[in-house]
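queue> pop job 88
queue> type: inverse folding (structure -> sequence)
queue> payload:
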């Protein structure tokens, strides 16, 4: 997918309008780059225009990016725009961004967030993504609590299908968690989409990664132990998500990463609620146990959600 440079190849009237938008964007970026507290930072997150998109309100923020809810001016279509501040990227994160762009621009799958457009200004890259009105899976669990086994199975089959696409492209996500799974469609026919590939990387078969990254509650033990790892770590994260869907909370906790790892290694069985466990089919419990096994292969060669 080509990257569109802002204010390029426009008719004169559009160039003038785009020039104003560009100056507005530059002023906005300079404000955001100034050293200020987060309260002041949020105050400056005002609506602005970039290309054909009106960025209206923030959906989430990180140390290197802001995700906006936006509107396509020419059509009125709602989109999400991920604004990445290039000067805040170290070499590792810059490589992850390249991986994210290359992967998303080469796939079209219902369970992978869709990249629609890419724009670039002097200091920022803007990824225009499909907007998922259902929010993320973490918000869904907070709102509705644990889900029934039948719905958990349907969700897992969708996530498994998405992960198969990643593995076929030799991509390891490294930050699979409910916050990074978006919901589209109606309440009775939800479609889950794997999103936020900001920590992803390409990993050829037989090679291993070593960077410790991700969210500890969904992080595989080998990552917590600073060991080399491959795409199997995403399967552990999938198991943690399945457990949370069934129980309403992650499988393991700890005040520190060390304590979290100790709790994982000392566990002889998964801490299912005594009220919930009798209602679950043995195949469902077995699937969760295999995904979260310290000795399993985490379904390296295939993703078969068979409960």
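queue> result:
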């Amino acid at each position: 997918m080509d990257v569109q440079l802002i204010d390029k190849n426009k008719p004169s009237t559009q160039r003038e309008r785009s020039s104003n938008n560009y100056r507005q964007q530059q002023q906005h970026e300079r404000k955001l780059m100034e050293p200020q507290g987060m309260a002041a930072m949020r105050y400056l997150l005002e609506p602005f225009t970039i290309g054909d998109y009106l960025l209206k309100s923030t959906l989430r923020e990180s140390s290197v990016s802001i995700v906006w809810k936006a509107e396509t001016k020419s059509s009125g279509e709602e989109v999400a725009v991920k604004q990445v501040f290039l000067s805040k990227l170290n070499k590792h994160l810059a490589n992850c961004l390249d991986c994210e762009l290359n992967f998303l621009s080469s796939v079209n799958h219902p369970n992978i967030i869709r990249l629609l457009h890419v724009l670039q200004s002097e200091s920022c890259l803007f990824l225009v993504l499909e907007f998922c009105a259902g929010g993320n899976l973490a918000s869904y669990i907070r709102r509705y609590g644990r889900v029934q086994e039948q719905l958990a199975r349907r969700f897992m089959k969708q996530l498994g299908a998405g992960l198969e696409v990643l593995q076929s492209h030799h991509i390891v996500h490294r930050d699979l968690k409910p916050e990074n799974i978006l919901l589209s469609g109606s309440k009775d026919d939800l479609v889950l989409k794997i999103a936020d590939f900001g920590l992803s990387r390409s990993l050829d078969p037989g090679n291993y990664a070593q960077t410790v990254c991700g969210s500890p509650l969904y992080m595989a033990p080998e990552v917590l132990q600073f060991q080399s790892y491959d795409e199997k770590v995403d399967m552990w994260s999938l198991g943690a998500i399945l457990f949370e869907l069934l129980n309403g909370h992650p499988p393991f906790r700890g005040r520190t990463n060390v304590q979290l790892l100790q709790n994982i290694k000392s566990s002889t069985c998964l801490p299912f609620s005594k009220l919930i466990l009798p209602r679950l089919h043995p195949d469902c419990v077995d699937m969760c146990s295999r995904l979260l096994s310290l000795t399993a292969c985490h379904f390296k060669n295939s993703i078969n959600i068979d409960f």
